[in-house]
Amino acid sequence: MPPRLPSTPLCDLLGCRLPIVLAGMGGVARSELVAAVSGAGAFGFLGMVREPLALIEREVAAVRAAGHQRFGVNLIPAGTDPALLAAQVDLCIALQVPVVGLFWDVHADVVARLRRAGVTVVHQVGSARHALDAQAAGAHALIVQGVEAGGHVHGTQPLHEVLAEVLALTELPVAAAGGLADGRDVARVLHQGAQAAVLGTAFIATPESFAHDVHRQALLAAQDGDTVLTEDFHINWPPHSPVRVLQCPVTRGERGDPHAGARTVIGDEEGRPIYRFSTDSPLRSMTGALADMALYAGTGVGRVNAIVPAADLVQQLAQDAAAHLRLLQEPDTPVEYASPVCYAPEFQRQRDEHLATQLQELLEAERAGARVALETGRAVPQGDAPLRTLVESIQHDEAHWCGVLLRALRRLGAQPGTRTGDFYGKAMAVADLRERMALLNRGQGWVARRVRELLQELEPEHEDLRADLQAMLQGHQDNLARVNAALGLQAPQKA
User: Fold this and answer.
1) What is d(CA 93, CA 87) in angstroms, rounded to the nearest whole number?
2) Which of 50, 298, 419, 462 is the most exposed place for a label (fewest CB within 10 A)?
3) Above 90 in pLDDT, residue 393?
4) 3-class state of residue 339 by DSSP
5) 172 in helix, strand or coil?
6) DSSP H helical ranges for 330-422
7) Confidence of residue 346 (pLDDT cuts 50, 70, 90)
């Protein structure tokens, strides 16, 4: 019997059988594609950013008419007029849409409104800080997006890095997105701890997507290195919102300065003008200079080489992912511990367990430090920009080290814990921000000492971990000095 891709708790939450999710791509992910993906056992989001209410109602009805009750609607508050957004949320509630996906900045009021109505909220984020913001706002699950993703990109980190940080910090189920295109990619992120893989580019190249054939054919002709992250396509979105697209005359500067001059109409969608430099991608319903529009694609585009039905794509992804996941999970060589002939493997196991215990302790401490820094940063007065910048920098560092420790634990075959160290409660009980910062510094000093001790114990086979821990030690020493300087202290405080 061929290997089967296991279901996950996130699958249970969403109501699907396979840990594969169709990204809520605006314009492209409509009812035909969502229904095909759902029918194959995966989960699909309708991409309804800025869409009129009549279209949302029609697309939701079409998915249900195809026999599917579990699906999502993707909305983006930052890219939508507030009045339209409020009406979209009201409509989703009235239609009893089971899942709503949100993206970009965390709007706690929108999350709360949906939660009160019984809607499952999945929030896509691009950083550990936004992941914790979404968790605090009440999201039920997260999608972590790496910088490799096609379309609008909110973060700056590669997927493997930001995924590890978020997994180390959040208590929510997490899906992974960004540059994923085939079954090996799906298996890789599941092996790293994600509970589902989110794909977009591969699903554009299906007959059910609402993308124009110009877009599909451009994907098939592209190689992995043919994408670019750019702000050239910006109309309809907040400033400084990069998108990943295939290179084209616009990105090569052949159509003029995207941020200067009057708007130029280059296409039409049923009477709606399409402007050059807008975030519109070419759809079936559009005419005009389609090759000058945003041809969204992730960095895995080179592995998209055929137009196949969405259901077939889902099944191929699941089959290949299951086979590759089995290889990732199987040890290279079976080891029989406590052999009567040689006890070396048993000693190695004990050393690894001891090392994992110490790394778990450090992870708990770093998780506490990251959360203290995040909440302290929120409390810094708006007028104190230097202190706010310092605290945010420390929070970013703490999240990074959480991700490093999580990856190290996984390499040892240990399951990373989810506990937050007791330091969090002690620090948050201190109301004065300067005193709390001083306490945070003592916590960083404790971590630095423990890392220094651990470096003395590492075996030669842990050279990769040694390099990570040396960088972690240096980072904490630098932050100790920065905080002491900000607080006017002469030397690091003793823990």
Assistant:
1) 10
2) 419
3) yes
4) coil
5) coil
6) 344-379, 385-411
7) low
For 417: left if phi > 0, alpha if psi spans -120 to 50, otherwise beta; the answer is: beta
Span 57-73, average pLDDT:
98
pLDDT tens column, 216-274: 999 999 998 999 999 999 998 888 899 999 999 999 999 999 988 789 999 999 999 99
pTM score of the predicted model: 0.91
CA distance 286 to 491: 65
* CA atoms in the 13 A half-sphere facing the CB of 181: 22
Contacts of 263 (CB under 8 A, 6+ apart): 235, 275, 276, 277
Q: How far out from the chain centre does Cα 212 lie?
A: 27
In a 3-state reduction of DSSP, which class is residue 43?
strand
Kind and range of the H or E element at 145? Answer: strand 141-145
- Cβ neighbourhood burial of 308 (10 Å; 0-12, 13-18, 19+): middle
Contact 440, 427 (CB under 8 A): yes
- Phi/psi for 220 (5° steps) reads -65, -30
Q: Which two tokens stand for residue 114?
A: 């949906």
Q: How confident is the model at residue 489 (pLDDT cuts 50, 70, 90)?
A: low
CB neighbour burial string for 450-474, b if at least 16 within 10 angstroms, e if fewer? bbeebeeeeeeebeebeebbeebbe
Backbone angles phi, psi at 331, to 5 degrees: -65, 150
pLDDT tens string 284-308: 999 999 999 999 999 999 999 999 9
User: Burial level of 401, CB count in 10 A (0-12/13-18/19+)?
Assistant: buried
